Structure formats: C-alpha cells, structure tokens
Amino acid sequence: MTHSVVAGADKKASDEAPEGTIWVCPACSKTNTHRTNNWDTSCATWAVLCRKDTLKYEDGVLVSAEAVNDEKSEIPW
Ligand SMILES: [Zn+2]
C-alpha cells in the first residue's frame, strides 16, 4: 500500500490564487483570491490568474494586468 492520492488537494489549491497572484475578471475588472467564491458566476467563467504586482490602477479602476500563464499577454480592457 504505497499509493498516495493527492488529486483532491491539487484541485482545491488551483482554485485558490497562489501567493503573489490574483484572479481577475476581464469583463468587470473585479479581483478575487478564489476562482469561484464570492463573485458572479460569469466572473468565475472569465477569471484569469494574474500577477499581483502587474495590476495597474487609474483613479481606483483596474486598467491592466499581466496573466500568469503567459508573461507576454496583457489583459485588454
Ligand atoms: Zn466579472
């Protein structure tokens, strides 16, 4: 009995934004530390994991952010 099953834990971890990152909804510019909790279903559908230090605000409104998976891709608003 040497099997170790970690699939469940991995799945849960992937919904939580890892340290230094945050989920961003490109449709309404909301941010969230969890991919599906505490915001609209449509936000969860469109959410993109971004690097926190790339979030740019103008007059308190989020205007751009860099996606984690592709450092060259900026989310256009
Ligand atoms: Zn949204």
Question: Could you characterize the architecture of this molecule?
Answer:
The protein is of the alpha+beta class. It has one domain (14-76). It is 19% helix and 22% strand. The protein is built from 2 helices and 5 strands. The strands form 2 sheets. A 3-stranded antiparallel β-sheet has the order 2-1-3, with no helix packed on it. Strands 4-5 form a two-stranded antiparallel ribbon. The radius of gyration is 14 Å and the shape is globular. The mean pLDDT is 84. The structure holds zinc ion. Residues 25, 27-28, 30, 40, 42-43 line the site of zinc ion. Zinc ion binds next to helix 2.
Q: Count the helices. How many?
A: 2
Order of helices and strands: HEEHEEE
Q: Give the low-pLDDT segments.
A: none
Instruction: Give a count of the beta strands, DSSP E runs of length 2 or more.
Output: 5
* Fraction of residues in β-strands: 15-25%
The total domain count is 1
Shape: globular
Portion of residues in helices? 10-25%
Q: Specify the structural class.
A: alpha+beta
